[in-house]
What does this fold into?
Amino acid sequence: MDALARLPSTAVEAAQIKKLYDSGDVDILGGLEATRDNFLSKNLTAYRFIHVASHGIVDTEIPQLSALILGRYGAQGPIADPYLRASDFLAQSFHADAIVLSACDTALGKQYAGEGFIGLRYAALARGAHAVVASLWPVSDGISAELMTDMYREMNAMRISSGQSPILGTAESVATSLAVAVRHLLKETPTLDPALWAPFTVYVAGE
It folds into this structure.
């Protein structure tokens, strides 16, 4: 694979989202900790939200190979396998209110009649996620960070106003919050190309 550009806004995205919540409520795998093995070593059934900001690749022939590309270097040096694949998701169980795939093409895969696209988004829903936020085409590093941060900020505001638990968790709140984030972005930059502000959508289990 050709060398991939660094994504400086992914670290900003993670740090800004973490600031919205109590530090004890958020785990971050960043820098040399952001590896496939570290991600898969977590008890992923315990998380209400799972958020991955990285490069994404889609395989339209073998959908299980669609992947998020995590760190190529860890604390012990080069990583042999940085690819968090759809097949890895299929080997997990999730109870998450939402899995957010903040990367390129994460809603895509191989298309099957009656099933739609089979890939990362499909795998996360199939293994128990209540909702998935995923992208329909390549995304902008900086704009994605802004949208995702604003989405979580809106969810947090909804939680505070309703007096609910630390992270509000319905699929409807995720979809509403993403829509609000898009409107905020367009209010700031009304001439922004839709290719930059419209790639993400919310997919809900059973729909």
Q: What stands out?
A: The first helix runs from residue 8 to 19.
